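### Sample
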Amino acid sequence: MSSQKNNKLQSSLNTTLPIFKQVCVIGLGLIGASFAQAIKDNGLCARLVAVDRHAPSIIEAIEHGLLDAGSANLQDVIAGSDLIIIAVPVQAVQAVFVDIKQAMDNGQLASDCIMTDVCSTKVNIIDAAKAVFGSLPIGLVPAHPIAGAENSGYHARRASLFANHSVIICELPTTSPAAIAKLRLLWESVGANVMSMDAEHHDRILAHTSHLPHLLAFNLVEQLASHDDNLDMFRYAAGGFRDFTRIAASDPKMWHDIFFANQSAIVSALDEYGVYLQTMRQLIIDKDSTALMGLLGRAQAARRHFGHMLASTPYTDTSAMSASYNITPSNTVSGTIAIPGDKSISHRSIMLGSLATGVTNVTGFLEGEDALATLQAFRDMGVTIEGPDNGNLTIHGVGMNGLKPSKTPLYMGNSGTSMRLLSGILAAQSFDSVLTGDTSLNKRPMERVAAPLRTMGAVIQSTGHSGTAPLSITGRDTAGKPLQGAEYDMPVASAQVKSCLLLAGLWAEGTTTVTQPEISRDHTERMLSAFGYPVTVEGNRISVTGGGTLTGGDIAVPADISSAAFFMVAAAISQDSELTLTQVGINPTRTGVIDILKLMNADISLSNETHVGGEPVADITIRSSNLVGIEIPEHLVPLAIDEFPVLFIAASCAQGRTVLTGAKELRVKESDRIAVMAEGLHTLGIDCTVTDDGLIIEGKGAATESGEVNNDQPVFGGGHIVSHHDHRIAMSFSVASLRASQQITIEGVETVNTSFPGFAELANQIGMSIQVDTGAE
């Protein structure tokens, strides 16, 4: 039955409690007793009975008020039950079915009585039912709660055992839709997350994820116990041994039955495990450091990565958005601080280092979630990457044609840069790829890169009418001829689109030329040159010719000017402030924020200018300033596109009107940054007008005749700001607190970690007062 039909049927059920008249639990071990307690505590049945051969458990359950009746004999208590829960070892289920059939034949049970189980194998349950009943009963709903505990038995029961755990239901075509809907409702009522799965697929998956780990744990304990010095082995066993072998304390009879019941899938999983184990054995024998580090690094990262991929989150769950900033107004900042590494350069260091020949050592890498998504993608494609460790990475490049197909879609989290730049690289590979992201990223436009890639011969499919992710990219082995060099006139200046096409051009036949209407950030061009790949720049025309190679080397990532912008504005709008930001990247295609602030009369100076890894850097000092409103020159817009949210805060504190035009790009970032910022500014009492391609802000800064800075009066009120899952929105309104009269609360700040891990701590270090509320109970 489809989930849509199931949902309609479930909503049509009478959900007035109780759901069932009488529930009979067969087996009061851990799962059975816990399920019974959860049903009882939530009032989900009018009467609860149980069958168990252990008489003391039945007696105690009745004395505790858990059961209305119980017996060792099913026929004594089963009459009138409309739900039977089978919680016995899997090999004993067929005998239980025999007793249930007898009760049906005797008229004690209706033929449509719902029957379910909690066993961790499903095919044998279905086979046992066929053997006993002939044809599958319409009330049979095989189920498996993915929950358990080290201790078992009646006394180990916990009503909360299933809360926030998954329960798999196998929806058989022979089962009545009403039975499936009622059982789903029951599990959801005790806090479980219900999903559907085919029985054979369930057994294969559980063989790898549950049965194999238990088998290995039992086997490892047996191996160590068999040693002559076993006492010392257990005495000095480290935490890893204890954690891994904890599950070997589980019920041996239960696992004995499971291993036999799921024999075929478990043997297959064991065989596959043996191949991987032999591979690792050989790597250790050969002392193949690079390959072993690659295997260990991929495993370490995958443990964290796939959890977020399954939840479609950018390494933090943005669906609930429970975390917030509660900010008390403060009016001055001071000190000398280091800003995290540049996100754009961090992305590109992973991409080009992976495609290079030889080893690339990266320092200053931004360990934010967007850059980590790029790192994981290349690990998924077979690249060995050591780190990150305090911003240090070692990338063992595989060369221009060394990437391997990922076994799963490449998950980009919330990173538009990762998705758009990787599209160019993957369009030229021999294998097929799928790029996906979290809910927010999958709403952002991707045809802006897909369409020009198609003019080069790429076969790329976006999703839906608006051309969003997931993106499906067909490899050249299937698509046929290689990409062809092309000339592309960009309608809007975009470093992501430009970089995507230039990266695709590395494999294209002939020359690829991108002409941009305005200068945009040139990190890709600079880094290609640093890796030894020729790039031709003629004004706004940038060209690469396919067929070259990249050579690994050392990459030093400077501090991110986009992140520094929040602190530049913080110092400029506050009173008696002086702040120095060390070794910030001042790439001329990124310094629009400095140019705009200077036009607004900001007191900014640069010192200790030098070059790091081909990128210019400098210390930036900002002091309290009497800002004035301006009409922002359109040629500076592409050079400050990411910094406008915080520049809107600066404009609000300026004397007079600030007008921004030519900024449609802001409407397709992590949020519509023009609309969202205007919404927040209105909340804080700022008069602003949204235009088609920009914003008009009426600044509330005070005029001064003496020239002395007068930033001691609030321009913002207080209030509740919704960040709309946008990290730059959250950080910008944090800066506004420096000129606020009341507390500002910003909802949904988890995404700050995508670009600026540790932002709140650094802000508090210089004098701000941000309290992080994680929303945890």
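The longest strand covers residues 603-612. This sample (3-phosphoshikimate 1-carboxyvinyltransferase) is used throughout the tutorial notebook.
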